[in-house]
Amino acid sequence: MKKYSIILFGLLFLSVNTAFSQRPVRGSVFPEKQKTDTPVETTNSKVATRRFEDTIAVGNSTVKLPQQQSTATNTTDEFEKATTLFNNQKYVDAGEKFNQLATLLKADDPLIYEVQFMQGECASVLGQLDKAEKILTMLSTKKNIPPGVMERALVRLGHVFCGLGKTDQATKAFARFRQEFPASQYNAVANCDSVK
User: Fold this and answer.
1) CA-based nearest residue to 192, from 86, 19, 183, 164
2) HSE (CB half, 13 Å, CA atoms) of 57?
3) How far apart are CA 165 and CA 175, in angstroms?
4) pLDDT in tens, 99-109
5) CB neighbours of 101 closer than 8 A, spacing ≥ 6?
6) Which of 39, 143, 158, 176 has its Cβ near the most Cβ atoms within 10 Å?
7) Torsional sign, CA 87, 88, 92, 93
8) CATH superfamily, region 68-195
9) Mean pLDDT of the chain
């Protein structure tokens, strides 16, 4: 009787083990992967395309798309390096980096506003107040400038006017600042006394 029980148990084990080994493991959790290389039907012919490829098929030729993301990543990295230089009080080196970035960025790139503000910051810290005035005045007259940049640009422009002895223009810059940003964290320093 024991012999038959062991044999029966063994057969049952083998049949259960074989049945489980033939079933997919958690098929609902691990769906079948889709292939990324799939032929795409077009009206003219079949064209093999790849997902996540930076090329597109035009007729019988392949056109390389511009590497916008890598350029954006490079300029963002360079901006961070320049900001680190500025924060480490290496103003001349930071100013050079910001100047280089300003020439690389397109006029509609959102990073250009931050770069231009930092150019003004470098110029004002280095005592180049005329240069800082030009940069910050130009920046404060641009359209579509992000509010955070405009807020800082107006305060710094007022400070630059104070440093140049142009108190009337400083008063106007600070008044515009207070009108546009009444709840700003910079209200306490929006005056000529803060730069003396």
Assistant:
1) 164
2) 14
3) 17
4) 999 999 988 88
5) 75, 78, 79, 82, 111, 115
6) 158
7) negative
8) Tetratricopeptide repeat domain (1.25.40.10)
9) 74
Size of the chain, expressed as the number of residues it contains: 196
Q: Where are the domains of the chain?
A: 35-65, 68-195
Joined tokens for residue 114: 């931050």
161, 170 contact by CB (below 8 A): yes
Supply 46's token pair.
Answer: 């079949």
What are the helix (H) ranges across 23-110? 68-87, 91-104
Cα four-point dihedral sign 125, 129, 132, 133: positive
Higher pLDDT, 171 or 35: 171
The residue type found at 139 is L
The whole-number pLDDT of residue 137 equals 97
Distance, C-alpha 136 to centroid of its chain: 23
Residue type, 84: T
- Tokens 């700003």 correspond to 184
- What DSSP element (H or E) covers 49? strand 46-50
